[in-house]
């Protein structure tokens, strides 16, 4: 068997704009529905969603064959957690709350085998397709994508050093937590937050790395961030889509 290519990583490094969606609903039925919707990438969220490893395994399988690529958001920058998601075949990670270059290096090291990192070895995991991918251990890193989240003012001040860390394929700016760190909780589109995100995206690009962000329900702002340099841009959250559209439908008939 061949090592699966990572189209998300390849498009990211080619500078191709990729439109994504957050999948907070912990269901492989939902992830397959969303995988056919037309997005380039889908975040399988295990930080802010009641989603665990066995279910993410099912979600990864549900997306096989669809063009949309899974990006697993782990709950923390933790090598043990990353190891388990690596072994089920995850090839793209979104790692939250990375504060500086040291934490970015730790995130990358968790995805690499020695001597490049500390990833634990398993002889027959889904990642290697149970030993059927002959060159997995020599080529896996080519198709491994590490996205780190910068989502505090402190981390945003260090975005250039984070961008320079080898193996960091992209930097996602988290509007929600960033706004909270700015004293603007639940105001991710506050003008000061928008200005900070735009500046961060420009600096990430100037540092030679690739920026991404999430915007919910505001196409103009999403396109403003794309103009500022976002090349992996999430434009919605499934749970919010379900909640708002179901409310609207009920209101049509219930008033
Ligand atoms: O800080 C943020 O904003 C993010 O990291 C995205 C949110 O966590 C995501 O759950 C959407 O609310």
In terms of topology, how is this protein built?
Blueprint: H1 7-13, E1 18-23, H2 28-35, E2 41-45, H3 53-63, E3 69-73, H4 79-87, E4 92-95, H5 101-110, H6 136-139, E5 145-150, H7 153-156, H8 159-163, E6 170-173, H9 175-181, H10 191-206, E7 211-214, H11 219-228, E8 230-237, H12 238-254
Parallel strand pairs: 1-2, 1-8, 2-3, 3-4, 4-5, 5-6, 6-7, 7-8
The protein binds the ligand O=C(O)C(=O)C[C@H](O)[C@@H](O)CO.
Strand order, biggest sheet? Answer: 1-2-3-4-5-6-7-8
Q: How are helices and strands ordered from N to C?
A: HEHEHEHEHHEHHEHHEHEH
Roughly how much helix do the residues carry, as a percent range? Answer: 40-55%
State the secondary-structure class: alpha/beta
Let me know the largest β-sheet.
8 strands, parallel, barrel
Plain-language structure description:
This protein is of the alpha/beta class and 255 residues long. It has one domain (7-254): TIM Barrel (Alpha-Beta Barrel). Helix content is 42%, strand content 16%. The chain is built from 12 helices and 8 strands. It has helices at 7-13, 28-35, 53-63, 79-87, 101-110, 136-139, 153-156, 159-163, 175-181, 191-206, 219-228, 238-254; strands at residues 18-23, 41-45, 69-73, 92-95, 145-150, 170-173, 211-214, 230-237. It has an 8-stranded parallel barrel with strand order 1-2-3-4-5-6-7-8, surrounded by 7 helices. Helix 3 links the parallel strand 2 and strand 3 (69-73). The longest helix is centred in the last third of the chain and has 17 residues, at 238-254. It is globular and about 60 Å long. The termini are far apart. The model has no long low-confidence stretch (mean pLDDT 98). The structure holds ligand LXDSK4UY. The site of ligand LXDSK4UY has 11 residues, from helix 9.
């Amino acid at each position: 068997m061949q090592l699966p290519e990572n189209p998300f990583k390849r498009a990211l490094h080619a500078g191709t704009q990729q439109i994504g969606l957050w999948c907070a609903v912990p269901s492989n039925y939902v992830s397959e529905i969303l995988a056919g919707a037309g997005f380039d990438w889908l975040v399988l969220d295990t930080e802010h969603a009641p989603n665990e490893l066995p279910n993410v395994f099912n979600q990864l399988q549900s997306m096989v064959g669809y063009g949309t690529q899974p990006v697993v958001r782990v709950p923390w920058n933790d090598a043990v957690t990353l190891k388990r998601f690596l072994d089920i075949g995850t090839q793209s990670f979104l790692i939250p709350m990375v504060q500086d270059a040291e934490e970015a290096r730790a995130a990358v090291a968790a995805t690499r085998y020695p001597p490049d990192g500390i990833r634990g070895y398993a002889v027959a995991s889904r990642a290697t397709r149970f030993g059927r991918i002959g060159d997995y251990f020599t080529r896996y890193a080519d198709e491994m994508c590490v996205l780190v989240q910068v989502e505090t003012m402190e981390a945003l001040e260090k975005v250039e050093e984070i961008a320079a860390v080898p193996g960091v394929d992209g930097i996602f700016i988290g509007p929600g937590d960033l706004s909270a760190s700015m004293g603007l909780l639940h105001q991710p589109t506050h003008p000061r937050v928008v200005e900070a995100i735009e500046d961060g995206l420009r600096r990430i690009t100037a540092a030679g790395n690739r920026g991404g962000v999430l915007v919910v329900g505001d196409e103009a702002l999403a396109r403003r961030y794309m103009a500022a340099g976002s090349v992996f841009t999430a434009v919605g959250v499934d749970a919010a889509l379900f909640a708002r559209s179901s409310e609207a439908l009920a209101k049509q008939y219930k008033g």
